[in-house]
Amino acid sequence: MTRSRLHPDTNPYIAFSDLTLNLVFVLIFFVGGILAVGQAGWEQVRYRKAQDVVAQAVKQARLPARPLLLLPGQRNDPPGAQRWVFSSQQMFVGDTATLTPAGQEALVAFARVLRDQGQHWKRVRIEGHTQTSKPNTPERWSLSAGRASAVAEAFYLRGGISPNRLAVAARGGQTSYAGIKFDPRNERVEIVVEYAQQSGD
Description:
Layout: H1 12-46, H2 48-60, E1 68-69, E2 81-87, H3 88-91, H4 101-116, E3 121-129, H5 141-157, E4 166-172, E5 188-195
Parallel strand pairs: 3-4
Antiparallel strand pairs: 1-2, 2-5, 3-5
C-alpha cells in the first residue's frame, strides 16, 4: 500500500510575482526614506567644495578681526548657504550704525577675500541683528537695517563686491544668537554667502 503525497496547490509564477512585488515596495520605501531624510544633506554636499575653498581662503587671510563661521543647520537657510558672524561690539560705535575704523578695515578685508573667490558664490546677504527687545519696547528695526546697510556699503565701496550681488535684511531682535534673550552676542551682523549650483573649477 502506497501513501499518496499531498502537494499544495501553488503556482510558482504567482509566488515569484508576489516576491517581486514585495521587493519593489521595500525598495520604494527605502529610497523614499533616504530622499526624505537626506535631501537637505545631499543638497549641502553639492556645495561643499565651494564652501571649503572660501572657508580656507578666509582662514589663510590676515584679517584684523576673524568672523565666526556657523555650522550648517543652525539657521533656516537654503542648501549651500554659509553664515559668518561679526560681533557688533567690535564693528560699530556704541549703539549706532556707524562703523569703527577697525570694524571698517575688518569688513573690507573680509569682503576682498569673498571678491577674490567670487566664482564660487552667487550672492551675499547681509543681516543686521540687535538685542532682543524688552516687553513694551519697540523693535530696533532701523538700527539693524542701518548696520546691515553700512556693511553693504563697505563691501561694495571698498571691498570690490558688485552691488547687484548684495542683499540687505533687517532682523531686529527676532533671532537671538544662541536662543538666549538679552545675550550680548545678539548684537551682530551675519554675512550669508549663498553658493552657485556649480562651483568654478
